[in-house]
Amino acid sequence: MAQDLTVFNQQHWAPEMQMTYFKENVARAIANEELRDVLVDGTRVHKPYRSSLKAQDYTKGTPISTFNDLGGADEYLDVDTVKIVPMYVDDLDKLQNKWDMAMIFARDAQQNLNNLIDQAVLAEYSNAASYISAQDLGGSGTGSYPISISNVDRLFTVAGRNLDKGNRGQNERFAIIGPRLREIIKLYVGARETGFGDTVGANGYVGTRFGFDLYFSNNIPFTAVVTSDAIGVAGEYFYVDGVKFTFVANGTATTAGDISIGDSEAATMANAVLAINGTGTPGASTYIDVSADDRETLYNGSISASFDTHTLTITGYGDVAITEAASNLVVTSNTQYPLFGVKGSTDLVVQKEPNLEFRVCENLLGRKVYAWTTYGKKTFTKSKKGLVYAKIDTSAWV
Description:
single chain, alpha+beta, phage-related protein like fold, six-stranded mixed β-sheet, 7 helices, 22 strands
């Protein structure tokens, strides 16, 4: 029979769109924002520090000949970062769309900007006065070391010791932990603390342990180093946070994630850098961009790559695994840097909160929507001993 009644089938729209999920932000819970009241305008706030004084012996009746030289040094915080998420929504779409897409995308943009502020504050780990390395966790040397149930308590003990050495008090101590570290802590405490870390509260707070307020974040910085020693082999591949990239013969890139093998190792890895970063011009002779969902994953983690002399360096934020199935690539290190410290050690000035401006467009029936923010951050010299970071070996992550 040729009968076909499918043209009469009814179709429906769900009452709500699919959810878009965002990272928990922790920056506002651990940063000092008091300087915001000073930088209501302008671009810089100065915060100098004074020289240290030294005591000396005094002999009765003997004139004092040496005096402390009083002085100091200037430091300042600049509001020097401006981020914007621009978009356009036509009035006709506003009239005819099922949802108010301008407002929905505007809220997404605000979340996006808050995520960048969060990453900027956690990147201050590099200004910490001390760090925790293999020799502190059961290994040897100053490199990274895996965290397990057997040494997770030592991680916090060493962090506390370093803060104690810097004369930082016992109060207001924090630790920023990712999914894997939270999992290890939950396994460590076991049934002793029912419900520990099962829920995430305001600003990512998950509980107190080892004398630290613990905050859950998917924005912990990481660095991976991948060594390359050959031009590349077609069909071999590697993963960055679950996003697959595949080497293909020169000029034959056609599928999402394909990387064209160049005429040299450097040319091939240059294409790999473009593919990871999503820059340059995609095409058969360079790379084919990954899917929109995979690109969102890389973007939300601010994942970027660079290459120099056999070394591919990948940086970003989150519990990110780098794995390879390629004869020319070896993941030589994958290190994450969870942050410990005393709240307020890093100053943050968000001069303009991430919010929206709507502007009517001339010659167009619509509005341009600008979500934007401007901010600056600084860990001043005298505050650096209030921060400690750990070098966690994540090379076994998959």
